[in-house]
Amino acid sequence: MDNIVGVFLMQLLQQLPLLLAYTVAIFLALAYWRRYPTPCLLTMVAAGLMLTVAVLQTFFNLYLVQNRSSVDGTIARMGSLLAVIGIASGLLRALAFGLLLAAVFYRRGDGQAPPVEQS
Is it the case that residue 51 has pLDDT exceeding 60? Predict the structure, then answer.
């Protein structure tokens, strides 16, 4: 299948439940922004980062496989490039997970609920 756009969309379709969960997290963070601004900011950045990583990793992996001749298509070279993409994606996902943890535990240590802003 030489149609890279069609293959890309099919691979995104396989990830649809996760992509939808990331999108819902972004909208929920926006909905609760006035009440809990810092946790919502952390959640929104984390979900946005995970959404971006999922889409870009899929694209780069597919691009490398489809255009292996333009990147010195030896198996060792392809393996190295795919490994770099995988490691970078894993590090970014770990960062996003850390941001989610920070959002969950924000101001939990002081035993007080965060102040509610009056509008």
Answer: yes
Angle, alpha carbons 85-91-94 (nearest 5°): 140
- For residue 57, count other CB atoms closer than 10 A to its CB: 20
**C-alpha closest to that of 53 among 96, 20, 24:** 96
Cα 6–chain centre separation: 22
Q: Is the pLDDT of residue 1 over 60?
A: no
Mind listing the pLDDT tens digit for each residue in 29-45?
999 999 999 999 999 99
Share of the chain residues as helix, strand and coil, in percent rounded to the nearest 5: 75, 0, 25
Minimal CA–CA distance to 39: which of 30, 50, 48?
30
Amino acid at position 2, single letter: D
Q: How many CB atoms lie within 10 A of CB 29?
A: 22
Q: How many CB atoms lie within 10 A of CB 41?
A: 15
Domain range summary for the chain, segments of one domain joined by +: 22-105
Q: Is the pLDDT of residue 85 over 70?
A: yes
